[in-house]
Records
---
Amino acid sequence: MFEQPEDAVERIVRQLQRPVPIDPAVDGRVMDEIARLPVPGGRSAARVAWGWVTRPRHIALSPLGGLAIATGVAALALVLSGRRPGSAPPAEDTPREFEFVVVAPRAASVSLVGDFNDWDAARTPMRPSQRGGPLWTAVVPLAPGRYRYAFLVDGSRWLADPAAPRARDDEFGTPSSVVTVGGS
Amino acid sequence: MTLRSLLRAAVATALAAAFVATAAAAQDPRLGRLDPGTRPLVAVAIDSARAAGLPTEPLVQRALEGATKGAPGPLIVSAVQRLAADLGRAREALGPGTTPPELEAGAAALRAGAGPAVLTQLRRARRQTIAVPLAVLTDLVASGVPVDSAAAAVLALAARARDADLVEFRRAVERDIALGAPPTAATAAAAAAADARISQLNAGARENRPGRP
C-alpha cells in the first residue's frame, strides 16, 4: 500500500513540529569551541586594523571635491593657528601706551595735540603731576609709526617736546616734535 | 565778446564749481574745521592723492595741524600739496607695495634731505617694514647729523636691527650730542655700539638654538 505524497509531507511536517528536548549547556559548549579555534592567519585585531588602514586604495575625486577638501583643510589650519581668514597678521600694529611729559610752570591747562588725535586740543588734556609742581602728563596708546605732536599751553602757547626730536617739516611757524613708535 | 564765448566761459565756470562742490561734498567731515575758503582746495588735493593711490590720512592730519595752529589758508593748502608730492616721490622710490606708514616716513626723510636712492637702498636692505628706519634717519638729521652720515649708519644697521634697536640707536646719538659730541662722531660711535650689541644678541640666539646633526 502506497502512501499518497500529500500524506507523506503532512507526516514529515508533524514530525518536524514535534518539540525536541535540547541540552541547556549546549550554548556554552558551542562558544567554548569557537573560542578555542585559532585566529585566521595568526593576526591580532590591531594588525588587521593596521593592514586595513595602510592598504593602498584608488580614490576617485572630482576637481570640485578636491577644491572643497583643500579649502576645508586650509580653513582648519587657519582656525587651529588662531587666525581668521582675512585677518591681519598678529604682528606689529598693536598699540603701546606712551607717556608724554612736559614742564609748564604756572600753566592753567595743557593739551597734547598731534597726528594721533586729529590735532584736537579738547581730545587729550594733560594732567598735572600728582606730586604737584610744573609737570604735566598724558598717556596715549600709539600703534607703530611716526607721529608729529606738540603741547598747547593755556590754549594759546605752543611748546615742542624738549625730550623728543623736532619735526623738520613744520610749515606753520610753531614748533612740533616727533615720536617714533617701533613695531619690533 | 561774442555770445558763444560768453556761453563757453559760463559752462567752464559751472563745471569748475560743480567739481569743487562735488569734492567738498565727499570730503572728510574733519575738514569742517578749516575755513570755508580753504576747505574745498584741501579737499581737492586730498581727492587727487586718493585717486593717485596715495594715503590721505597724513594729508588730513597736516591740514588739521594747520587749522589748530591758526595758520593762514594758503599756507595750509600749500603744506598739504607739498606733502602729497613728497608722498608720491616716496612711493616712486620705495615701490608700489609700500605701506602708508612707510610712505609717510619716506616723505619725511625726503623732506629732511635724504635722496630717493637712500630710500630704495633701505627698501632692499631690510625685509621688515622700513617705517622706523626712515623715521630714525629723519630724526637724526633733525638732531644735526649730516644726512649722508645718518643714511650710512641707518643703512648699515637696517638689515639686522629690530625697530627697538634703531630707536635705541637714535636715542644714543641724541644723548651724545646733548653731552657735547659732534653729531657725526656721535652717530659713528652709536652705530658701532649698536652693531656690536646686535651681533652679540644674534650670537647668543645661535648658541641657544638646538644643535643640528
---
Amino acid sequence: MDKKTKIESLTPAERITRALVAVVKYFSLLLASFIAVLPIVSCLLVSFKTDEEYQLTPVMQLPENFLNFDNFRRVWVDGDMGRAFATSFFVVVVVVAFSVLVGSMLAYVLNRFAFPGNKLIRNLFLFATLIPGIAMQVTIYQIMTSLGLVNSLLGYIILQCGTDVISIYIFLQFFENLSVSLDESAILEGCTYFGVFFKILFPLLRPAIVTVMILKGIGVYNEYYSANLYLQDKTRFVTVSTALYTFTGPFGNAYNLICAGVILTLIPMLIIFIFCQNLIYSGLAAGSVKG
Amino acid sequence: MAQTLTAKAPKPKLSFREWISLPRVQKWFVIVTFAIVPLLLLLVFTYIPFGKMIEFSLYDRSYTKIRGFVGLKNYTRIFTRSDYFDAMFLSVYYMGGALIQLALALYFATLLSFKTRAGNLFKGTIFFPYLINGIAIGFIFKFFYTRGFVLDTVLGFLGFNPESLPYWLRDQSINNYSLVATSVWRYMGQNMVMFIGAIMSVDPTLYEAAEIDGANRWKQFLYIILPSIKTIVMLNVILSITGSLSAFEPPYVIMGGGASGTATYFIKMHQTAHIDQRVGTACAMAVVLMIIIIIATILQKLFFRFVLKEGVDDVPERSPKKPRKKLARV
C-alpha cells in the first residue's frame, strides 16, 4: 500500500530510470551467475557421456543418457576415490576436533586468567599472522623431515593442526561475551576449573564451534599443497585432492572421467553449502576480522 | 595478608591431594595444560621455521647438505637474475586481477544489499566457486580452456570465429590472463560475501532516512555504503598484494607446475627448493616475500591510522579478566 503510493508519485522519467536500473541489475546478476555456473555445469554434462560419445560429440552437446553413472563408478574404483574420501574424511574429523578443543582451551585460559605471560602469548599469536605461512614452507619441510613426519598420515595431520590463529580469535571473541559470573557461581558450587570449562562453558560455545568446524573443515578438505608434499607415497595415502591430481595419469585427457571425479569431490561441499549457507557466510565475516 | 598466613601455616602438613586442590596450583595447572599444546605447535611450525628461514638464507645448501656460508649472495642472486625477477613481475597480473575482483565484488555486494528477487540464490551461486577444491578448479578450467571446448563453444555461439580464437593456455601472450581469470572466478564471491556482511552492519534506518530525503541509489552508495565498508575494502586491497605474491594454485595445477612462462613467485620458490635443491636461495626468496608482506601490513596500519582515522579504535584492546581472586579461597 505504502509502496504503491510511492511509485505512483514518481514522474515518468524517474520511473524509466528505475526500470533501467533494474534491468541492468538483474542482467549483471544473471550474467555473473551464468559465468559462475558455466564451468561447473559443462563439467557435469561431460561426466555423463560414454567414451565414444565424448570423442564424437561437441563438448557442449547434452549427453544422451543423464543416468549414465558409469564414469562415476569407474573413477570411484580405478581412481581410488573411495579410499581418498575415507582418508580425507578421517583427516578432516581429527583436525577439526583437535582445532576446536585446543583453540577453545587456549582462548579460555587467555580470556579468564590474568597471569604473567598472557599478553606475551597473545602477541606471539598476533605476530604469527604477520609471517606468511607460505614463505616458510621450505623450512617447515626441513623440520618435518628431521622429525620423521614426512610420508606419514600423523605428520600431515599434525601439520594441518599447526598454528591456527583464526579459530583462536573466533573463540576469544566469543568468550568476551560469556559472563564471568557463570564461572564464579560454578566455582562456588565446588566446580574445578576443568569442570567450569568442560561442563559449563564448552557447551555454550556451540555457535563458535560450528563456525570453526566449518571453516577449518572446508580448508582441510580442499588442501592440496601439503598433502602432495607430505604424503608422497600415493600407494599408501591419498586424499581427495591428491587422488584427483593424479587423474591426468590413468585417465589422460579423458575429460568425461576426469570431470566425473571433479563432480564427486564437489558433492560434499555442495551438501554442506546447502545446509550451512548462513553459517559459512557469518564464519567468513568472523574470520576476516583479524585481518 | 590473610592469604600469606593461611598459606604458610598448614604448608608442611599438605598432602599431595590437598596441595593439588589449592586454587593457586589449580589455576597454574589449568593454564599450563590448556596452553602447552598450541604454544608448542606455534613454536614448531611458526617460530622455529621463521628462525631457520633467516639462517638458511645465508647459506648455500640443500635440504641435507650445507655447501658453505655465503652471506648475502642468495639475495643478490634473486635481485640480479632475470628469472626470479620475471616470477615476481607475474604478480602484477594477479594484482590487477585482484583489483578487478574487488571492484566486481563491491558492485555485486551493493546490488545484493538492496532488495533483490532471488537475492539469496544469486549470492549463493556467485559464492559457491570459493568452496571448490583447488585441484578440481584446475581440471575444470583445463577443460574449459581447451581448444574447441567450453569457452570456444560459447564464444562461437556469440558469433566469434572459432578458428581465430587464441590458445588460451598455450599462447604465452595470453595464458597469464586466463589463469588470473580463474582466480577471479574463484575468489570474487568470497569478497562479495564479506562486503555484504559489512554493508548489512549499517543501521538500516540510515537508508530509510536517505530514501525519504530523496537520495538515489548512487548517492546512497557514495554516502552510506562506501564509508561503512572502506575499512574492509582497504584491507582487501592490501591483502590482494600479499595474495598475488603468494599465488600458486592456478599455474601449479592448470599448467602442471608453471610451464609456458606462468611460474609465479611462489612456484619459483618451490622449484628452487625441491627441484634445483637450492634451499638457501629459496629461503632468501621467502625472506624477501615476507619483508614485502610486512611492509604492506605496516602501510595498511598507517593508512588506517592516518587516512581513515579508524581501524585502531574499532578493535578495542581487551585486558584479560580475572574471575578467580575472591572465590578461589572459599
---
Amino acid sequence: MAPQKVARRRPAYRLAVVGRIVLAVAGGYAVAALLTALLSLTLPLVRSEAVATATLLSFAVMVAVVIYVFAAPTLGRAALTVAGLAAVLGGGLWLAGGFAAVGAA
Amino acid sequence: MRQGFRQSMAWLHAWSGLVVGWVLFCVFVTGTASYYRTEISQWMRPELAETASDPARSADLAAAYLQRAMPDATGWYIELPKPEKPLIGVMWWKSLEGPFHQALLDPATGTPTKARDTRGGDFLYRFHFELGMPPLWGRWIVGTCALVMLVALVSGIVTHRRIFADFFTFRRRRSQRGWLDAHNVFGVLALPFHLMITYTGLVTLAPMYMPWGVVSAYKGDEMRFYVDSGLMPELRAPSGKPGTLAPLSGMVAQGIAARGEAPEGVSVFNPADATPSVLAVFEEPHGLAHEHPQIAFDGATGAMLGSNGATRAAAKTSTVMLGLHEGHFAGAALRVLFFLCGVMGAATVATGLVLWAVARAPQGAEAEGFGLRLVRTLNVGTIVGLPAGIAAYFLANRLLPLDLAARADWEVGTFFGAWALVAVAGALRPAESVWREGLGLVGGLFLAVPVVGALTTGLHPLAGETRFLGFDAAMIALGILLGLAARKAGQARLRPALRADAGITGGEALRA
C-alpha cells in the first residue's frame, strides 16, 4: 500500500489523471457527436428515424469511450485510439456531406 | 488508475461517483419527490378544492388576460384547469431566450388567483434538472452528472463481481461490511431502475445535449425534425403584419369535438400577427409512451389546419423512454414502487459518499487531510441539508403570512436558507455526533410538517378533511425513518472493517 500511495502523489501520475479526464470528456463527446451526425446522414431509414436512432445511441457511445479511456493501459494509447476513431468518423462525415451541410446552414 | 481492468474500474467508480455524488443526491431526491408533484402542489394550496371548470371559457379568460399583460408577445402558453389543479396557468414571452412571465388565474373570474402565492411541487420538479440555477447552466450540469452516473454504474457493475448472485440474494446485514453492504444492497436491488432512470433522463434532454444528428440531417430547419417525427404538427411562419386572434374558445370546442376530451393546454404563436398559429395540446394517451396528440389551428380564422402524425419505431422508442422516466403511466401502486426505487437511488448515492470518506478515515494518530475534511463536510451539508431545506420549504408554506409580497420567493429563500444553515452548522459540529444530530433534526422537521399544517389551516382528518392524508402519512413516515437513521448513527460507530473474501469489492477497491 505505502509505496503505491507515494507513487500516486507524484506530479507525473496526477498529470496522467488530468490527461485521461480531458481525453474522456472532449474525446468522448467528439466521438459521440461525430458518430451521431454520421449515422443521422447514412442510416438507411426515414430521415427523422435515422436522427432519432443515432441520438438515442449517442449516450451509450460516449459512456463506452469514457470507460475505454480509463481502462486503457497508457494515456498515449488511449489518446491515439480516440483520435484515430474521431478522424475516421470525421472523414466519413465529410464524405457524407455533413460538413458542407452545416457550413451552408 | 490501476493495472488491470477490474482495478481501473474500481478506481473510476470511486472517483467518478465522488465528484458528482452531491449533485446526484439532489437530483435523485427532488426527482423522486416529483413523482408526487401534483399532490405536493395540492397540499401547498390548501384553499383550493377540487372543482371542474369550463375549458373553452377558461381559454378565453386566459387570452383576455394575456392581451392586457403583453399584447406584442411572440408566444403564449395556457395550461387549462383540471379538477386537481383548478387554476389557469398562463405563460408569455417576447423572445424564446426569455424572460418567461407567468401567472395563475382563477377559472371563475380570469383574474390572478386568491390562493396563496407558492411554486408548489413545481419548484422541486424544476430543481430536479435545473438545480435552481439559470436553466441552461443547471441542465448542462445535471446532464454531465447523469453521464458520469452512467459511467459510475457501468464501472460499479464491473467492480462488483458478485453482482449476479447479489441480485438474487437477500442477505441480512452483516455488521462488519457496514456501509459497503448498504451501498451494494441499495445499488444492486434497484439497479435496473438506476440504469433506466439515468439513461432516459439524458434522452429527455437529448435535443440539447446531442443536437448534432438533427443539425447535420436537417440543415437549419430543425423544427422539421419534430414534424417528421410525428411529435408536432406543421406551424405557419409569422407574416410580419399585425392582425387579430380569433376567440380561443371556438378552437378548444373544435378540439374537444375532434378528440372527445378537453386539451390540457393551448399554445399560441405570434398572437398579434396576421397569421397566428394555435396549438391544442392533449394529455398523453394511456400507455408507456409520453406523446401529446396536438391539433393546429389558423389563429386568425379558427380553422383546423391538421394534427401531428404517428410516431415510427425510433421516435416511439424516444417517447417511451420519456414516459418511463416521468412515470405518468403508473397507477397508484406502481408509482409507490417508482418512488421507493428513487429513494433507493438517493440512498445508493448517499451511502457511496459516506463510504468514500469512511474508507479513507485516518488510521490511529494520522491527521485528517483537507480533502477528506471537505468531503465529510459536503456529505453532511448535502445529505442532511437538502432534506432539511425541503421540510423548511413545506413549513414556510404554512407559516409565512399569506399577504407577504413575493411570498413564493420567500418560500424558495427559506428552502435555500435552511439548507445553508444546516450545512454550516454541520461543518462546525464534531464528526462523532454530527450525523445523529443532523438526521434527528431533519426527522423532527418532517414530523412537524403535518402538525403545523393542521394547526395553521384547521384542515385535518379530525375536522373531516381527508385530502391530505397521503401527504401527511408520507411526512410522518419520512420523519420516523430519519429518526431511526439518527438512532443508528448514534449507536456504536460502524467501523469499515471489510471482509477480505469480498475480493475487489473490499478495502482494496475502496482505497483505489
